[in-house]
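Page 42, continued from yesterday. The earlier attempt failed because a stray header line got pasted into the input along with the sequence. Redoing it now with the clean sequence only.
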Amino acid sequence: MLTGIDKRPVDGPVQVTAPASEGTGEVGLAGDRAYDVRGHGGPDQAVYAYAREDLDRWQDELGRPLPDGVFGENLTTAGIDVNGALIGDRWRVGRGVLLEVSCPRIPCGTFQGWLGETGWIKRFTRAARPGAYLRVIEAGEIRAGDTVGLVRRPGHDVTVAVAFRALTAEPGLLPLLIPIEELPYYVRDVARKRSGR
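This time it went through. Structure tokens are written below.
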């Protein structure tokens, strides 16, 4: 089975653009794509960020090395609480690229198969350290070592971790997601339907 999860660090700049639509496998970084296009890729999942600090915790728990990119992330960050980011936070990466936190990653069977860890989906879900999908607001080039700076915060307090917990293990939190305009429409629809609102 083809998978886009296997990411490797690259030398030099990488072009970042907003994918045109969902369901095509398009993602935001040149040379990357999603092969399982149902529920992957598109404008709201253009870039995936995961914290090196969280990879290090998993590395300790799993007892094996986890190199940058192994979770399928396009950006392996350092010194940023990705799961504590607010839905709608805007990050400037390098000089030109502007990204907006859109939603948490929900683990799938392909992710579990890639890691080869029995029960991985449940374990990843319990940990509630999902990382964040981002949409591209301003296109440009990024490269390893670029700084990531917070340039805008929305007027709510729903974090990536709270959205993840609402969508997975804590449905009582779902009503918090409904008014968050920065969430993808399909996430808000799920929140409405599951919470009966």
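Notes: The chain has a mean pLDDT of 92.
Reminder to self: strip header lines before submitting.
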